[in-house]
Specification:
Elements (H helix, E strand, L loop, with lengths): L1 E8 L11 H4 L5 E5 L7 H14 L2 E5 L17 H22 L3 E4 L3 H9 L1 H14 L4 E5 L3 H8 L3 E7 L23 H14 L1 E3 L5 E3 L4 E4 L6 H14 L3 E2 L11
Parallel strand pairs: 1-2, 1-9, 1-10, 2-3, 3-4, 4-5, 5-6, 6-9
Antiparallel strand pairs: 7-8
Helix pairs in contact: 2-3, 3-5, 4-5, 5-6, 7-8
């Protein structure tokens, strides 16, 4: 059995530091790098790509809505054409930093409200998938397990990776519980480990209402701005490897070294 571990990184902005990127890079296998719209900036993007290269972590673009104040977690009303152009723009910026550093852009994963809308809204999902197909057709499209984004990505013949979340609660419909609701985020190591083990070993997750739903995961996400995220990620990776789960980049071959 194998799993990719990803985290949202590069979310600092100017003099403001967010997250525990330095420690996370020691544990994750794929990095979702903010592209300057919801978080990050041109200096942070360059530094973060260099960090990923140094630690052998695969690089992914993490495009979001142009909403720095809301951290990209507020829904914006944009046409499919606007979403397409917005995603192409952000992919292009990070792709250039990757080319300068000589590292491939492994994947694209939408951020925040854009990600959640793409999970349910076909037009949003199609705009994102088309942007990825036109900008980086060789890249892997990360999307919520069982979502519209994964389905549309396959329609465009993109490589896709079904994603599950280590630290977020789910609705009965398989979507992420809104952060506006209580207990939408798992806080303790024990809770997070239990959820990750259920996802990997039993392909299921418990919802906010106490029901179990089926879920497939090629990659597990830890939020870079989460409480004690670096420590929790390290401990959970160790726990998984003790149970003979191979932690590999989602695009790596099965015979790759740990």
């Amino acid at each position: 059995m194998r799993i990719d571990i990803n985290a949202d990184v590069g979310e600092s902005f100017g003099a403001f530091k967010i997250g525990e990127d330095e420690q996370l890079f020691l544990q994750i296998t794929s990095a979702n790098i903010a592209c300057g719209f919801h978080a990050g900036d041109f200096n942070v993007m360059e530094t973060t790509v260099k960090q990923a290269k140094k630690h052998g972590v695969a690089v992914g673009a993490h495009p979001g809505y142009p909403d720095l104040q809301g951290f990209g977690r507020r829904e914006l009303k944009m046409t499919p054409a606007e979403i397409y152009n917005m995603v192409v723009y952000q992919i292009g910026a990070l792709k250039q930093f990757c080319e300068i550093q000589g590292v491939p852009l492994q994947h694209v994963k939408p951020h925040g409200a854009l990600y959640n809308q793409a999970a349910e809204n076909y037009e949003v999902a199609e705009a994102i998938a088309k942007a990825v197909y036109d900008a980086v057709p060789e890249a892997i499209l990360f999307g919520l397990s069982n979502s519209e984004l994964i389905k549309v990505g396959k329609k465009f013949h993109l490589k896709t990776a079904a994603e599950a979340f280590a630290d977020r609660r789910y609705t009965d419909e398989g979507n992420l519980s809104s952060r506006l609701l209580p207990n939408a985020v798992l806080r303790t190591y024990e809770e997070i480990l239990d959820q990750v083990r259920e996802i990997i070993f039993h392909k299921r997750v418990k919802t906010v209402s106490g029901n179990w739903i089926d879920i497939e995961a090629d990659t597990i996400c830890f939020h870079g701005d989460g409480q004690n995220v670096a420590q929790n990620t390290a401990l959970i990776r160790q726990a998984l490897e003790k149970e003979e789960i191979r932690v590999l980049q989602v695009g790596a071959k099965d015979d790759s070294a740990l």
